[in-house]
Write a structure and sequence with these properties.
Strand order of the largest sheet: 7-1-4-3-2-6-5-8
Distance between the termini: 92 Å
Helix content: 25-40%
Shape: elongated
Number of helices: 2
Largest sheet: 8 strands, mixed
Structural class: alpha/beta
Strand content: 25-35%
Order of helices and strands: HEEEEEEEEH
Number of strands: 8
Radius of gyration: 23 Å
Length: 153
């Protein structure tokens, strides 16, 4: 009778460890993080955001420095993206934000390209220089129908 209890306890612990491992992997794959409050929040307005989603990474020179907190439609019918960045990050006032894609058809992220001004962005400021996402469908349609991308004659 005693060996059955030991075996049941061993199986229970094994199942518990398996469930904890699955929960850990789910959180890692989903990208769920909690950095607490106090991040630097910036806004950027784009004509086209493509497939950009909330919690998408924000990168400077390929290094992840934050994430997309929210995406809203502004009154002028443009997309306003709120970025939550590391609080110690110092970005110049002429920093540019562009929506980029991992590979050809990968997930999208916001790439910040620092400028050269001495004035720094602070929480609540807006990134003025933005580059919208490339719309492949529109580009292919333009190519197929023979319209010139850079304007006509």
């Amino acid at each position: 009778m005693q060996s059955t209890r030991g075996r049941d306890l061993g199986v229970g612990l094994f199942v518990m460890l398996g469930l904890l491992a699955i929960a850990y992997l789910s959180v890692q794959v989903g990208g769920l993080t909690y950095k607490g409050s106090g991040g630097m929040r910036l806004s950027a307005t784009f004509e086209e955001i493509g497939g950009l989603k909330e919690r998408a990474p924000v990168r400077v020179s390929g290094v992840t420095v934050g994430q997309v907190e929210s995406i809203q439609l502004a009154e002028d019918l443009r997309a306003t993206v709120i970025l939550n960045l590391d609080p110690g990050l110092e970005l110049s006032a002429d920093t540019a934000a562009a929506i980029r894609t991992h590979g050809l058809l990968g997930d999208q992220f916001v790439a910040l390209e620092p400028g050269g001004e001495e004035d720094l962005l602070e929480t609540g400021d807006a990134v003025v220089f933005t580059e919208s996402a490339l719309n492949l469908e529109k580009l292919i349609g333009t190519f197929v129908h023979g319209n010139e991308v850079g304007g006509g004659e």
